[in-house]
């Protein structure tokens, strides 16, 4: 199974997440994608972070009828950093071929993530363009190192067995939607999911109410 991994706060999930994920699945020939809803992000402020269960529920709503699984597996693994999470996933699911998906906003600060070169060596990375972030991404310290590993999407799609490091840029009509705008428009959005206990689509465990602290870097 070729599986794309898109990590984030999903605070809340929105149609932009769905659109870029479906585009990546098609462009890269993926079987499915996992939305890894992070318990938290050390590179983002904790203020305004909704409970994990509410963010999971919003993601499940956006993922309906799509080859997208919503998971909080990082919380269950007890990993704090993405590099550790990916190592555990590759060990737990050896028959899957994973590819890391991220927006150009994350590439711009990728060099701040712990063991970011190790992440790049562990699986191919596909970067999805985001309005306003492309210039910072292309001039980032991480891009200076990754540039030599840039490959076209077609080579990843056709490859029998993926290798890494490999960097793919995916460009399509920009989607201006963002979780920040959603929160501004509806500050109390999480109230709609009060008491939610969504089921993890990967581990099949129920995600109850809990704190929002954790990883993603």
From TrEMBL:
Which parts of the sequence are annotated with region: Disordered?
A: 195-217
- One Pfam family from the record: CTP_transf_like
Q: Which InterPro entries match?
A: Cyt_trans-like, NadD/NMNAT, Rossmann-like_a/b/a_fold
HAMAP family documented for this protein: NaMN_adenylyltr
Protein name, please? Answer: Probable nicotinate-nucleotide adenylyltransferase
Gene Ontology BP annotations: NAD+ biosynthetic process
The pathway entry for this protein reads as: Cofactor biosynthesis; NAD(+) biosynthesis; deamido-NAD(+) from nicotinate D-ribonucleotide: step 1/1
Q: Which family does it belong to?
A: Belongs to the NadD family.
Role according to the record: Catalyzes the reversible adenylation of nicotinate mononucleotide (NaMN) to nicotinic acid adenine dinucleotide (NaAD).
Q: Which reaction does it catalyse?
A: nicotinate beta-D-ribonucleotide + ATP + H(+) = deamido-NAD(+) + diphosphate
Instruction: Give a yes or no for keyword Lipoprotein in this entry.
Output: no
* Alphabetically ordered keywords of this record: ATP-binding, NAD, Nucleotide-binding, Nucleotidyltransferase, Pyridine nucleotide biosynthesis, Transferase
For whether the record's keyword set contains Nucleotidyltransferase, the answer is yes
* Protein EC: 2.7.7.18
Q: Name one GO molecular function term.
A: nicotinate-nucleotide adenylyltransferase activity
Q: Give the Cytidyltransferase-like domain ranges.
A: 5-143
- Gene3D superfamilies xrefs: HUPs (3.40.50.620)
Please tell me the species this chain comes from.
Answer: Croceicoccus marinus
């Amino acid at each position: 199974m070729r599986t794309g991994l898109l990590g984030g706060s999903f605070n809340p999930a929105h149609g932009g997440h769905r659109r870029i994920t479906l585009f990546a699945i098609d462009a890269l020939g993926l079987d499915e994608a996992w939305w890894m809803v992070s318990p938290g992000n050390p590179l983002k402020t904790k203020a305004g972070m909704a409970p994990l269960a509410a963010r999971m529920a919003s993601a499940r709503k956006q993922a309906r009828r799509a080859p997208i699984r919503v998971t909080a597996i990082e919380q269950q693994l007890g990993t704090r950093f993405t590099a550790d999470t990916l190592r555990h996933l590759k060990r737990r699911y050896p028959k899957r071929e994973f590819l890391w998906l991220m927006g150009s906003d994350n590439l711009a600060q990728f060099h701040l993530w712990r063991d970011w070169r190790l992440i790049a060596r562990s699986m191919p990375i596909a970067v999805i363009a985001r309005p306003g972030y492309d210039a910072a991404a292309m001039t980032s310290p991480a891009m200076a190192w990754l540039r030599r590993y840039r490959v076209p999407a077609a080579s990843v799609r056709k490859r029998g067995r993926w290798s890494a490091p490999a960097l793919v840029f995916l460009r399509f009509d920009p989607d201006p939607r963002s979780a920040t705008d959603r929160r501004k428009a509806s500050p109390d959005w999480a109230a709609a999911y009060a008491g939610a206990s969504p089921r993890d689509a990967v581990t099949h465990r129920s995600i109850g109410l809990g704190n929002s602290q954790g990883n993603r870097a």
